[in-house]
Amino acid sequence: MCGIVGYIGNKNCVPILINGLKRLEYRGYDSAGIGILTDDNAIIVKQKGKVSLLEEKIEELNLYSNIGIGHTRWATHGIPNEMNAHPHSNNDGTLFLIHNGIIENFHVLKKGLLKLGYQFKSETDSEVIVHLIDSFLKKGFDLTKSVQLALNEVEGTYGLAIVYSKEPDKIVVARKGSPLVVGIGDGENFVASDVSAILAYTKQVIYLEDGEVAILKKDSFSAKTIYDKEIEKEVHEITMSLDEIDRGGYAHFMLKEIMEQPETVRNSIRGRIIDEDGTSILGGLSDVVNELTDSKRILITACGTSWHAGLVGEYMFEQFCRIPTEVEYASEFRYRNPIIEKNDAIFFISQSGETADTLAAMREAKMKGALVLGICNVVGSSIARETNAGVYTHAGPEIGVASTKAFTSQLTVLALITLLIARRKNLSRVDGKTIADELKLIPEKIEKILKLNNEIEKIAEEFKDATNFLYLGRGYNFPVALEGALKMKEISYIHAEGYPAAEMKHGPIALIDENMPVVFIAPKDSTYEKIISNIQEVKARGGRIIAIANEDDNEIDKLVDYTIKVPQTIRMLMPILTVIPLQLLAYHIAVKKGLNVDQPRNLAKSVTVE
Question: Which of 27, 95, 376, 462 has the highest CB neighbour number within 10 Å of its CB?
Fold first, then answer.
């Protein structure tokens, strides 16, 4: 996600901020900026693009200050540009802040602030916070109290660092849902969203928890809750090196991103469910929702992992929206002169929003008059700009080439779109509420699966020398079989195939022997008995079986060699859960083979050529 760094002490903060921002570049971002105080005056410098461009801009200004904050932004509200970059300031320029997270009620807060005469320069939700704090300063409260009072009105997530020229001896920081760490130095203190930004200067750190506000001065640190209760914080010693800390303590970005999925799925859902109506609200589709609901056919076009997400979307749209749906490889779409009608709606799914094949297919469909919609992760990307409308996944930057958290976020967004359309058509409020309630439970169920990491690693040890894998699933879990096989191919270089389980006896069964591991995705649903029959067919031929099954399924243990148990949920959401053990299995096998997990050979994160 976005990066935060701050400094207060006796040194020039400018090079410290720039170096910190460089250490945060791995997280992904689209713009950067710093804010400093000089003789009680605030100076803000912002730049779209790389930190190196910001650095060049700052060098021309020859700035010096003992206090400042810096930020790298990954756009969520508003396109990537200098105006939307952080820091954001109040109207008279005396107060400025940087923010990570999403403010869910910013529309309501903004309306109130506009009535008070506040003027907004950016499209961001973050600017609301600086004006809200300013409104309490104007009532006579000091900076710390104003921050506390403002945050009591804020709904959403935040990691904040705030500087006020009328109280130039402090940085106030606050956290809820977005990590912040305070670095303790000798006559200087630091703040960052990730210890990598400050590890070159100190290894003494304090971790802030949700609902805590900290006051950093050059010689002191103190903490309170947003309700003004004093807190004693423990200082921790960081033992990891800079190279290790870049990945947040994880051995690889891929593992870090797998482990982030409870939060990334929450981010995809946040603010998008209307509980009382059992439906969803997707601002990016508001202008076209009637046209989408009335469409005669939906097409989904994508590549790789996003194509697998589209296959799950096909099941969702047809089961609940009752709209015929087809899924196309973007790389084939425009070359076969596809039949596109005026009443068609076409979704283009891409993590980066820059996938060349998907862009080319999108432009072909747009030329033929279809309703062209995007599902992507990167704000301001080509797909986001060129589609008629769309939905962001809000998964945050994904650095590992093998997509993990982007996939589960795409599935989450497809479920939200399904709920939106189906409730406007024939889905009852009760059934809609069932889906909505289950969606909200998915993050904690993912957390439960991730606790099986060590167990899955032991299974990986048994299969690290395999040369082939077969993945089998039915219904919603057939695309999961494809995705599991793709992960294994991408990072372990083991040949793997995904099939509908019923198709096994139409060819692949010939491959099965004692050397062929077979992974069955076998949750208890309407196809369960059929899957059990397929398992018995494999077992009869000596195949070694790994089953992804439900927690309450004890019978399957007798039929397979290994089971990985996942919580139960409704069928349409089960792929979000069943895919995670397969991500971990592929990851651990690749690690045990000594391979470059994050940058597998021949692959790029964003495929920008056809």
Answer: 376
